[in-house]
Amino acid sequence: MSETNEAATSLAELLIAARREGSKLTAEAVGGLEPTDAAAADAAQLAVVEKLGAIGGYKVLQAGDAPGSWGAILADRVFEAPAEVAYSISSLKVEAEIAFVFGRALPGKPGGAAYTAEEVTEAVAGAFAAFEILESRLADDPRPSPLLARADFMGNWGLVRSSPVADWQRLVHADVAVRLEVGGRVVVDQRGGHPSGVPSHPLTWLANMLAASGHPLRAGDVVTTGAFGGGHIIAPGETAVATIEGFEPIRFVLRG
Predict the structure, then answer these.
(1) pLDDT in tens, 204-246
(2) What is the DSSP track for the chain?
(3) Integer Cα distance of 157 and 94 in angstroms
(4) How far is CA 172 from the centre of its chain?
(5) Nearest by Cα to 187 from 249, 231, 253
(6) CATH topology of domain 54-255
(7) Mind listing the pLDDT tens digit for each residue in 60-96?
(8) In Å, how far from its chain's centre is CA 176?
(9) Nearest to 100 by CA among 64, 130, 79, 70
(10) Sorting pLDDT into bands at 50, 70 and 90, what band is 3?
(11) Is the pTM of this model over 0.90?
């Protein structure tokens, strides 16, 4: 086993233990295992997946032409709305997002040529309103490096999905209106403000990055691309409801 693979496996073991115990990894605990580049962070993610189960989708953050970052979503943590989930190991946050489901795989083009935005769009079977559920396995102070956060699935705990809309392109734009209530409190009420501008923008970067890495998008994979209005704590017993213009409202109940 190479030194890089050994470090990825060791970091994955720490992250898995933190998941199971509800603990937070400090910089001291991670020590020299902190990833030094994107490839090392992704190797740690995949080592966690290998122990915990299959990938059901991805979260991605990317703006403009800059390189992005992705996090795995475990298949057994993708829930159909309205969803009711019991969890009390550690605190969770919810984000209101627009997500996508792929109707066909994007395994890579001959010669390694990049997929165009049009080709990626054609592979999308639909878009839907979603909750990304967040739980960081990392201590807040000092703030984790972006690469360490990437190794930790970028904080993903799961995803709540609603029914996809096949005619999605008319609905997914930069000025979509979003409202999020948590525990009866309105925590997001805005128009636009997605980190990528148009929520579908990061899909092309992700498709090409995953194809180049040998772990391409498959038919049925879901991809969520960033929050409107950030993440908000949801306490056990509370309900989150998101209304995203053009989509059916989505509901999630966290039980203790």
Answers:
(1) 999 999 999 999 999 999 999 999 999 999 999 999 999 999 9
(2) --HHHHHHHHHHHHHHHHHHHT--B-HHHHGGGS-SSHHHHHHHHHHHHHHH--EEEEEEE--TTS--EEEEEEGGGEEESSEEEE--SS-EEEEEEEEEEESS-B---GGGPPPPHHHHHHHEEEEEEEEEEE--SB-SSSPPPHHHHHHTGGGEEEEEE-PPBSS-TTT-STT-EEEEEETTEEEEEEE---TTSSTTTHHHHHHHHHHHHT--B-TT-EEEEEESS--EEE-TT-EEEEEETTS--EEEEEE-
(3) 10
(4) 18
(5) 231
(6) Fumarylacetoacetate hydrolase; domain 2 (3.90.850)
(7) 999 999 999 999 999 999 999 999 999 999 999 999 9
(8) 20
(9) 130
(10) low
(11) yes
Q: What is residue 219's predicted lDDT score, i.e. its pLDDT?
A: 98
Name the token pair of 32.
């020299």
- pLDDT, residue 164, reads 97
CA dist list (Å): 172 to 100, 122, 169, 201: 10, 14, 5, 10
> What residue has token string 């691309």?
225
Domain extent listing, the chain:
54-255
